[in-house]
Amino acid sequence: MTRNSVLLALRENPLAGGVSTEQVRRIGKELDNRGLEPRWAVSAEEAGAILRTEAGLSAAVIAWDLPGGTDGEGGGADVLRQIQRRWKRLPVFLLMNDDSDQDLERLPLWVSEAVIGYVWPLEDTATFIAGRIVTAAQAYHQDILPPFFRALRRFDDAHEYSWHTPAHSGGVAFLKSATGRAFFEYFGERLFRSDLSISVGALGSLFEHNGPIGDAERNAARVFGADRTYFVLHGNSTADRMVGHYSVTADEIALVDRNCHKSVLHGLVISGARPVYLVPTRNGYGLAGPLPPHAIAPGAVAARVAENPLAAGAVAPEAQYAVVTNSTYDGLCYDTVAAARAFAPSTPRLHFDEAWFAYARFHPLYAGRYGMAVGPDTLPGPERPTVFSTQSTHKLLAALSQGAMVHVRSSPRAPVEHERFNEAYMMHGTTSPLYPAIASLDVAAAMMDGPQGEWLIDEAVTEAIRFRQAVVRTGRRVAEAGDRPEWFFGVWQPDTVTDPATGTPVAFADAPAALLRSEPSCWQLEPGAAWHGFEGLTEGYCMLDPIKVTLTCPGVSASGETSSWGIPARVLTAYLADRGIVVEKTDSYTTLILFSMGITKGKWGTLMDALMDFKSLYDADAPLEEVLPGLVEQYPLRYGGGTLRGLCQDMHEHLASGELIASLDAAFQQLPEPVEPPQRCYQRLIRGGTERLRLAEAAGRVAAAMVTVTPPGIPVLMPGESTGTPDGPLLRYLGALEAFDREFPGFHSEAHGVSVDPESGDYLIECVRRSPA
Ligand SMILES: *Cc1c(COP(=O)(O)O)cnc(C)c1O
């Protein structure tokens, strides 16, 4: 275990002479004896470096006359301000100079709010002063614990005997077998001690939302800006099903973003709702954009409902519920207030699936772009819909896998009565929750509370911006060097940004990081801008999230013009994977990487290096044996003797040839015909079963499973929809993908819901069996 530490920032080297300094050195020694590691600094800059890297800081002692600092107030003031930016409650003592005429009345007023006490080294004994610091540090460590985690620790420390489930009883049962013992020892006693049953009344109940669990949910609601927050232990998938199951019932209409997760569809199966899909825009890279403003305007929504044959059989013509993915996988987030205003005439309940976006509230860059930003403050008036936000807390905040939350902001128009929502909640919950998982949700919320939340997210944003600028600058240096082919990888982002203070555009790579970190307009998708390639957007409607970085490869532009040569991203990511770098997602000419709180400079430096190496290999037209040895070994006949450039060019020509792109376009412009509501389709599947059909046999059938292909990573076929005619858009598109996979073994398309016949390479899709005539 690492030790907690205390920052001691003083005017001179602690080893220097002087009675006062010597006394501070003794205080440090005393702290060390009592288990706190002293970290010395003799300037504001050194103190700053410790503050940036030391999360285990328990207290700080700062000399007011510390050298350094940037703002003219002096080093001590500078460090106090740095502390305030990250820590809300860290105990800070101001170290006063015994030799000078410093006195409290000459300190600025704000200082007394920033510190909890003053230390005149010579006025008390070192032991006494260290004792005060240690006491404050201990109180701080109690104080930072959120409600449930605090209660759980207290309970575990009490070591009671229990007579209830789980039967392993604090892990003892595992110790009775060699296999069990291996398990116990691997995870350690603490996991088993804290794995308690809900019979432990003192910790509260997840279903009744009371006791410390209820306190933890209320604390999370405060932190995330919700009226009410529910902890969910089976992933955001369950959160999505809960909200869907609560919001809409059998044969009512649900408005569903076509770019939705499977779990949303499962919610529709369970509720029996009739989905009417809304279609996102796409750009030349094939990336899915947001639902454009014109697609969510009341008239357009009404028209889509009117043309949907299933909606005709609904119990009422108005939708009860709409669900939108925010942000998209590629990091596109909405002006949620504008989206809610647009949806208001069409639905009383609006659900933002924010699986990848739980951090949005904690950085000013995302102001107004997350579900919980929609409330009476931002959207006054009776039309405001009730808003749900579901988040995979574990995906981009720090929680154990499966940890998720539902946040609710209820409107008078469709009030969410807790008792009723809780019925849906309990139906999808377990009566035996894992307490360490609950604690991780409690901790995830506490970590975001106060200034440190912004600090943590800002770090991820800052690293992402550094990487984004580094890629562009490297491209520029390559071009300027003139000694090698000019191309380099790009980043999907604006080429220039404008500081609203000056109104002058600057190149993205040259923009001050401070501007990019704080100015949302730098990241907005301006209507009509070439870099993003989406049509029909309005000012400020959609923003690119800096931490979701899409690398672009040569070959195609955002508006879809193809060039004579290209590097399909799948070749790049195969190379990266060989070097131990695994990306989040790969499309035709783009690949996505995420900058989460866990990213470090070492990690992205390695990626930059790999990109440079790939360029050198490409420019030298290296043999595939050298670049992708595993691939050549697996498919010697196909790739043996080939070169990197040759493979890229072959694949580029195949991708750029009309069929794949044209059929992809068609498949997204004309959604398949809905034949059965998802629930009915599911009933038929259970009674009649399904069969896997080759594309050649699949025409005119009802799909039983969701088919999602990348790009654009959104479903092309939903259960209950018709596969269409043999030369219809869907089967033509799947056929084109199948042909690609045959041509380029080892680079098969990412297609979920499609299985591949290992012998023939044929695509198979799951269709509902025809009922016997
Ligand atoms: C991952 C994801 C989910 C499901 O979340 P889990 O926590 O994995 O269950 C739901 N919606 C979207 C958009 C997702 O990306």
Automatic annotation (TrEMBL):
UniProtKB keywords: Decarboxylase, Lyase, Pyridoxal phosphate
Every Orn/Lys/Arg decarboxylase C-terminal domain range: 628-757
Protein name listed in UniProt: Orn/Lys/Arg decarboxylase N-terminal domain-containing protein
Stated family: Belongs to the Orn/Lys/Arg decarboxylase class-I family.
Pfam families for this protein: OKR_DC_1 (PF01276), OKR_DC_1_C (PF03711), OKR_DC_1_N (PF03709)
Residue ranges annotated for the Orn/Lys/Arg decarboxylase N-terminal domain, each copy included: 21-140
Orn/Lys/Arg decarboxylases family 1 pyridoxal-P attachment site domain ranges (all copies): 146-602
Keyword Plastid: no
